[in-house]
Amino acid sequence: MLEKLKEYENLLGYKYPDAYLKVVELKLLDFDNWFLMSFEQLVDRRDELIKRYPNRNLVPFAGRYDSDDIACFEIDFGEKVFIVHDYATEGFERRQEFDDFWSWFISAIKELIGIE
Question: Is the pTM of this model over 0.85?
Fold first, then answer.
């Protein structure tokens, strides 16, 4: 998957954060409620997001099993992670924001082990 992501970076004009690539490399893919999307899932989901939210340049990487929330990077916002409630009315999709991938990852792990 890493090789596909590297090729996709060139297409997007966006460099994935090293932290995300490290977690993919280690195959840490499932955190109970959250899961890292497969390459095919993230490409398909990005195409859908462009249609639903044309004013945003979202790059999805994770989804939730229990809702339509997805974790995304956004081109021109560096390594910030945005939690988007997919299928919400445009302008109402934004749920939460993290400074970087590790902040999101720690939150997902805390949720997994029941620490709030």
Answer: yes
- Give CA separation, 48 vs 51, 54, 80, 86, in Å: 5, 10, 21, 10
Does the structure show a pLDDT above 70 at 79? Answer: yes
3-state secondary structure labels for all residues of the chain: CHHHHHHHHHHHCCCCCHHHHHHHHCCCCEECCEEECCHHHHHHHHHHHHHHCCCCCEEEEEEECCCCEEEEEECCCCCCEEEEECCCCCCCCEEEEECCHHHHHHHHHHHHHCCC
